[in-house]
Design a protein that fits this description.
- It is a single chain.
- The chain folds into four domains: 238 residues, Alpha/Beta hydrolase fold, catalytic domain (Rossmann fold, 3-Layer(aba) Sandwich); 95 residues, Sandwich (Immunoglobulin-like); 179 residues, Jelly Rolls (Sandwich); 39 residues, no CATH class.
- 13% of the residues lie in helices and 37% in strands.
- The chain is built from seven helices and 35 strands.
- Strand 27 and strand 28 form a beta hairpin.
């Protein structure tokens, strides 16, 4: 009986196509498991999938990619592609250098020689630490990998996307109950690539995907038609999903098979405006106006020529261009979020689509701190400067310098706050501003009376430091109103410290001229002065007409009177005044 069992095991070893192999990389012997279906043929795809920390290729292949209903081998057999499970050194991956990047390159070369795989259809994924490595590879070898599929892993220090990297297709799979690599970090990592790829910032969501308790989020198409996808697995932990309805290996293949490095369809991208740009207009009901938007696109074809580029607002055609420059004017836009698209058609009739989102708002109240929800990020709409480095939103992955901090003390004044600082101590050299061009938001204010509510603390200034708030014109940064406030709460340089809620402060100001403005907050003029700001709400209390009122009595309130250049007057004088948004002519 024992001999029969042994013979059966030996027979299984002989007939199973999955085998262990090795290769020397940078003088080190590296090993991997490879599976190639029978009757593979030539120019077939390759999937490389990396194990998690303290795991290995055998565990990944035999434990995480097998169940009673389907296996990775069965997916490969049907679709005819090669899969490689590599082994990391000491059961770990190099997520910052080139050691394992070179290993992946060597695997691709060997598979091209051994199985004649199609180098244009190589895909990379990984579980847990393997997923972290997958994100690392997005910036290192985007010219070798057609699509990326991280599972339950992302860069713990924050994702980054190098500016020179092409648009990257990504499928991220993650359980909401993951207690090792928390689900809360997935969205910040994907946001970086959604922005980089020029994808719409609002995802399409398919609930109960495949009749299963999960959601599929789809951002796209972005530049070159790529998508970023998130398969959100409700209540799943830190493991690979192997359910019949959602089998990870099959989901990865169904995503990856849509992408190739040598695609024949056109390349198209929208270069302006940036996706996520917001145009905010405070004005009396029904009178908000927005600028005409110039939409600019780049388009080319890898194996022919561009016949036309069509521009759309949703499904409404805006313009058609048959030659460069590819531009269209989006005029008379209404409030709301607009999905602007550029559709490029080549001489073969193939098309590609690039999409962006812009939002036009006409509020009476605007919570400027509404995007203070992600630690280590700079929120959309905001720009900071600390006398050394300028940062603009949305961006993330910051562990030092100006950024959003999350407070976790048992007693705290707010959960999140925007931290900024002044390194060199010179006046106005440390600030946070809302409404600058690079922050992605335009703030237009009609003449009227406004108020700004805010809460401010110091972060690491036990002696406290005064903070200056200023309303500035966007064109020349001339201040039309100012207020100085000295905090009386210092958090103490540790996000877990307890601190009381700062008192709600009120900054009232008048706008006398329609235009684009910036809300600026400056830390003190001293070295390493700092500030934490939160719970900012801008409100239009009243709007006024701009006609000139003639009056005999010159006893105007000096503190609220301005000349036509917006300069505050110290005493009444004859001529044209502006007070509370109204023009007066004093005789």
């Amino acid at each position: 009986m024992k001999q029969l069992i042994l013979s059966f095991i030996l027979l299984m070893v002989v007939v199973l196509p999955m085998k262990a192999d090795n290769i020397t990389v940078d003088g080190t012997n590296r090993s991997y498991n490879v599976y190639a279906p029978k009757n593979l043929g030539e120019n077939r795809p390759l999937l490389i999938f990396c194990h998690g920390y303290n795991q290995d290729a055998n565990w990944m292949q035999n434990s995480e990619f097998k169940n009673d209903n389907v296996s990775m081998e069965a997916v490969c057999d049907t679709a005819k592609f090669v899969v490689v499970f590599p082994n990391g050194i000491n059961k770990a991956w190099d997520t910052s250098g080139n050691r394992d990047i070179n290993f992946v390159k060597a695997i691709i070369d060997k598979m091209a020689t051994q199985y004649k795989i199609d180098r244009n259809r190589v895909y990379l994924g990984g579980f847990s630490m393997g997923g972290m490595f997958t994100y690392h590879a997005m910036n290192k070898i985007p010219d070798l990998i057609a699509a990326f599929c991280p599972v339950s892993g992302y860069p713990m220090g924050g994702a980054t996307a190098n500016a020179n990297v092409r648009p990257i297709p990504i499928l991220h799979i993650h359980g909401t109950g993951d207690d090792v690599v928390g689900f809360s970090g997935v969205q910040p990592a994907l946001n970086v690539w959604v922005k980089h790829n020029g994808c719409p910032t609002t995802a399409k969501v398919i609930n109960n995907y495949n009749g299963f308790n999960c959601k599929l989020h789809i951002w796209g198409p972005g530049n070159d038609g790529v998508e970023v996808r998130l398969l959100e697995l409700a209540n799943k932990g830190h493991w690979i999903c192997k359910e019949k309805q959602v089998y990870t290996g099959k989901e990865i293949w169904n995503f990856c098979k849509n992408y190739s490095l040598n695609k024949t369809s056109p390349n198209v991208s929208i270069t302006s405006p940036k996706t996520g740009t917001k145009y905010i207009s405070f004005a009396p009901t029904g009178s908000a106006t927005f600028p005409d938007l110039t939409i600019t696109a780049n388009a080319d074809d890898p194996n022919g020529s561009i016949e036309k580029v069509e521009f759309y607002d949703g499904t409404t055609l805006i313009a058609t261009c048959t030659e460069m420059p590819y531009q269209a004017t989006f005029a008379n836009a209404k409030t709301g979020t607009h999905a602007l698209k550029a559709v490029a058609t080549d001489n073969d009739g193939e098309t590609s689509t690039a999409s962006i989102e812009v939002t036009l708002q006409a509020p009476t109240n605007l919570t400027l701190s509404s995007y203070f929800t992600e630690a280590g990020a700079l929120p959309a709409g905001w720009t900071t400067f600390d006398s050394s480095e300028r940062r603009s939103g949305y961006s993330n992955g910051y562990s030092q310098g100006c950024r959003v901090l999350q407070f976790t003390g048992t007693h705290r004044g707010f959960n999140y706050g925007l931290y900024f600082r002044n390194i060199n101590g010179k006046a106005h050299q440390g600030w946070a501003k809302y409404g600058l061009t690079d922050g992605g938001t335009t703030l237009s204010l009609a003449p009227g009376h406004y108020s700004l509510k805010y809460k401010i603390c110091n972060w690491n200034m036990s002696n406290f430091g005064p903070v200056e708030l200023s309303i500035e014109k966007r064109t020349d940064y001339v201040s039309i109103a100012e207020q100085t406030y000295t905090p009386n709460i210092n958090i103490g340089n540790v996000a877990t410290n307890n601190f009381n809620s700062p008192a709600q402060q009120l900054f009232e100001f008048d706008v006398t001229e329609q235009g684009d403005y910036v809300i600026a907050i400056y830390s003190a003029a001293s070295e390493w002065s700092d500030c934490i700001v939160g719970q900012l709400i801008l409100t239009a209390n009243s709007y006024v007409n701009t006609g000139i009122n003639t009056i005999e009595n010159l006893s105007l309130e000096p503190s609220a009177s301005y000349d036509l250049q917006g300069r505050k007057l110290s005493h009444p004088q004859r001529g044209i005044y502006i007070q509370n948004g109204k023009k007066f002519f004093g005789k």
